[in-house]
Write a structure and sequence with these properties.
Layout (H helix, E strand, L loop, with lengths): L11 H6 L8 H9 L2 H10 L6 H17 L2 H15 L15 H22 L5 H17 L11 H13 L7 H11 L5 H5 L1 H9 L4 H7 L5 H20 L2 H4 L2 H10 L14
Length: 275
């Protein structure tokens, strides 16, 4: 694996992931991830998401933001931590599940890419195919930190969408009983209590981008609250985003990286977009 080269301020990785509104796609990505049978089995056997959902979310976000905005040393520490955490995540029969299964890894990364692109386009602004291709290319490097070969990610956005439609319309997602069990627990964990209280919101956020057949396989029913929430978000978030100061609009990791980057001398991956 080649040495990691940090992303630069003009990368699509910075431009998209700095946006706080992108986090609204997290519930959808999480549910889609565990709709994959191998991911569901690994999460059910090795994750503390039921009892420590906030801690797990915090650790996940910190890892993602560190890779997106961190320097080579910081990313190296994330890579080592991920390798340690994923090492034990495999079934007694390796064919059942493994954290290093490339197809499952590709799907997990794909959910993050699509969720981020969807939220950015919905609440911040449009993205050209050139910008989406750049984002995809950068995510190939992003995925390498978590053990995924860059060669496995589709090379263009149309190819990526073709892969995405094949997964969403195909028979794999939701095909194991654990998929629905874990997916429903993801949006309504046992603890802490505040996550249970907010579970209708997480459910609405999660189901917006799930096609009806997949919702049915995962055991989710339709909800009028889901539509009302998204109409509310569509009505005020774009205008709020346009007037929000950086402190509110942008993630803390981005703001720190932006300040420190002015004096940094490390090599960078260039992107097509301006920040």
């Amino acid at each position: 694996m080649s040495a990691f080269v940090p992303f630069s301020p003009d990368s699509m990785m910075w431009r998209i992931n700095r946006e706080r509104v992108v986090l609204l796609g997290g519930a959808s990505a999480a549910v889609l991830q565990v709709a994959h049978p191998q991911v569901a089995m690994g999460v059910a056997a090795h994750s503390s998401f039921r009892s420590d959902s906030i801690g797990r979310l915090r650790r996940t976000l910190d890892a993602v933001y560190t890779v997106a905005f961190g320097n080579a040393g910081e990313v190296g520490r994330v890579r080592a931590a991920v390798a340690r955490a994923h090492g034990p995540v495999q079934g007694e029969n390796p064919a059942s599940y493994s954290a290093f299964d490339p197809d499952a890894q590709l799907w997990v990364l794909a959910t993050l890419i699509m969720a981020s692109a969807n939220m950015f386009r919905r609440f911040v602004g449009p993205l050209t195919e050139k910008e989406l291709n750049q984002f995809l290319e950068e995510n190939a490097r992003f995925g390498e930190v978590f053990g995924l070969s860059a060669a496995l990610l589709p090379k263009s956005w149309p190819e990526f969408e073709h892969y995405w439609r094949g997964m969403m319309d195909g028979p794999l997602l939701g095909s194991h009983p654990l998929c629905g069990e874990v997916a429903r627990a993801v949006v309504r964990p046992d603890a802490p209590w505040i996550m249970r209280v907010l579970s209708p919101v997480f459910r609405a956020l999660a189901l917006e981008y799930l096609p009806a057949p997949l919702r049915d396989r995962l055991g989710f029913s339709n909800s009028t609250g889901q539509n009302r929430l998204w109409k509310l978000l569509d009505g005020f978030l774009p205008s709020m985003r346009r007037i929000a100061p950086p402190l509110l609009a942008f993630a803390p990791h981005y703001r720190r990286a932006r300040r420190s980057h002015e004096n940094a001398t490390f090599p960078t991956i260039k992107g097509a977009a301006k920040s």
